Amino acid sequence: MIELIPNYFMIPFLFILGSIFGSFFNVVIYRLPNNNSIIWPASHCLNCKTSIKYKDNIPILSYLLLGGKCRLCESPFSSRYLLVEILTAVMTVCFYIIFGLNINFVMYLFLIYLLIPITFIDIDHFIIPNEFILLGLLVLFIGLPLDFLPISWEQGLYGALIFSGFLFFIGLIGQFILKKESIGFGDVKLGLILGGYLGVEYSILALYLSFAISAIMVFILLGSNIIDRKAKIPFGPYLAGGTLSAILTTLPNGDNIIINWYYQTMF
Ligand SMILES: [Zn+2]
Prior knowledge:
Elements: H1 7-31, H2 61-65, H3 79-99, H4 103-125, H5 130-143, H6 153-178, H7 185-223, H8 236-248, H9 257-266
Bound molecules: zinc ion.
């Protein structure tokens, strides 16, 4: 029955729904690491402390209409608010287009809804809060045995062990060579969730992509003097980026563009 809902309704609906979640994630990203309540008080301007009225709190639209400024004191709001809302909205629509309206869509959407706040909190504070890890593990504990994902629970289990085990191992080597923390324990814990979602083959792909993307980014950031060699770099965003790339390059038949290309070139 649910296939009967037309795309011209579903796509705008999911875009708006995604932008509302994005708006909520902005609150979570800003308040959770500071141990502030995410429910109270209502959103307010950080400069003049006036609470933001409902009509000025519409995701994406309000930011654009007000030119990214407070209506009263005109102090600028970070463009990240807009970025997070648009990113969440676009990802919601993308995942719907890839998976259709089914339980796989709900499961993967939940994963990306964890990864968006994790990414920005890790960038700001170099931590991955345990709340996200526990939530992700809980959903896997329910979802894997009930076949809510396109992989078996054994694949999920092995994926989790390989993903987090590899990060733990690389972290140990990094600690030994660099004499400082390279991959944190938060990343190892996040690896359990990512591997549990991806299974073995996709875990290897996502790990490969994460390290490739981080190498390119560090090279660019060092080259353009945005960071120096001693800079601390959060790895969570790259794990999120690698995982997302692995999922988004999956074809409707379940094959993956990058894995196919690899086998065609190598064998
Ligand atoms: Zn203000």
